[in-house]
Amino acid sequence: MKTVETLNEGLKREYRVTITAKDIDARVDDEVKSIAPTVRMPGFRPGKVPANLIRKMHGPALSADALNKAIDAGVRDLMAKEKLRPALQPAVSLDDGYETGKDAELTVSLEVLPDIETPSIDGLKLERLTVPADDKAVMAKIEEFAAQMKRFEEAPKTKKAAQGDQVIIDFAGSVDGVAFDGGTGEDMAVEIGSGQLIPGFEDQLVGVKVGDEKTLKVTFPDDYPVADLKGQPAEFAVTVKEVKVPAASKIDDEFAKSLGLESLDKLKELMKDQVEQELNGLTRTYMKRKLLDQLAASHDFEVPPTMVEAEFNQIWQQLEHEASHEEDPEAAKAELENDRDDYRSIAVRRVRLGLLLSEIGQAHGVQVSQQEMQRLVMQAAQQYRPEDRQRFVEYVQQDALAAAQLRAPLYEDKVVDFLFEKAEISDREVTREEIEAAIEADDDGHVHGPGCGHDHDHDHKPAKKAAAKKPAAKKDAVKEEAKAEEAPAKKAPAKKAAAPKAEAPKAEAEKPAAEKKAPAKKTAAKK
After folding, report:
1. How many CB atoms sit inside 10 A of residue 213's CB?
2. Spatial CB neighbours of 3, under 8 Å, sequence gap ≥ 6
3. N or C: which end of the chain has fewer CB within 10 A?
4. Which tens digit of pLDDT belongs to each residue from 369-398?
5. Residue-wise burial string across 397-417, b where 16 or more C-beta atoms lie within 10 A, e elsewhere
6. pTM
7. What SS3 string covers 433-450?
């Protein structure tokens, strides 16, 4: 193999690599030998088919496999010979004029990771803001949960539905007079004002009573997932079967027993554990951001442009998604454009911090154990259907990049914990409102490092910005990871798909009839 460097500019490298026809042909011979024992041909005993006949039968496929293996080996040899640390997967292109039996001419382009002087971890000073999980905070959490567990009771048949009431309906939808798939259903529970359904559907149920038949006219959103319904006007013939009103939830032993618990005291005990976890998460988020601020302030080096571009694109896609759900999407997107450069600077900071954390971790022997990795894989596999979980496990085992991306957040947390141990930490007790305000005031959210084979953070949420007023889309998009919550996109005039149940009493109560098929249900946001 012959190698010639054709570009060395900053972190960019490009090489001209020649793989000889002799090397490729030798690999074809190896392929022939490996498959010979399994080849069957009339007139020959198994495993006795001559090599020249095998070449004749499988020549093109063997040559293609040999070429691919030669290219892979050539790129690996190049990385080792030149001592290159690629930031992302190298781009490899084969000359258009390549023909079987000739030398293969390759162009290998890549960006390398910068040489980073081992970061100093001396002199780190952090303040740990703590919030006590007192009785007031616990009761507030229970009241919040009770509101989520909203119950409805039957109202008099003459009761006209109002905002906040629940209406049980049968419905049949149509577009241009033609029924569409999934557009009919029975006994669907709709809470007026919940915002679960497409705009206009719930509002038109205000004032209906039992026995009413009404035609609702709505328009499917432009981002509706079913292509032939996007932006289409539709009608839903609705029959009202019940009107229900909210029932007061009294927080007492009976309420706790309805959740399967022994008493209100037991509920308080469980809720206190949950509140403590949330508050500890806020404490860690604040400390971590201050730690990253110190690292960012004391290190400045060039970062690979492709890594920055990948990070920026993830930030931008999230912001555009949020803006598309604003009251005035075009205005929100236009305001985003004014801050494009600022968000690109945030992407640079995130990549730089990701590289720093990786360098610190490697320098001080921080590792993710095999047992921890196996636990991560099994946890991630649970989001798939049972029949697909083993395929996911095998995919992670075979794909180094997928494994690195899965390992990344745990690796980062372990590096951060290592730095916490080395830092001088002072404690100060504050209120929840104070620590949340302190987090909101920070300039940067969660770090995201390289999307390549080494460890890095995986959170794609845009970073928090200060200064200029931002549209609501940005405010939603930049919530810290301790509080962030993905919301399902608005879809059809039907109920939201039931969310996976969490441990009681944390999960939101499942809506009545949530298991029934409805006209184009909402789906959960992609994980």
Report:
1. 10
2. 15, 16, 17, 18, 78, 81, 82
3. C
4. 999 999 999 999 999 999 999 999 999 998
5. eeeeeebbbbbbbbbbebbbe
6. 0.63
7. HHHHHHHHHCCCCCCCCC
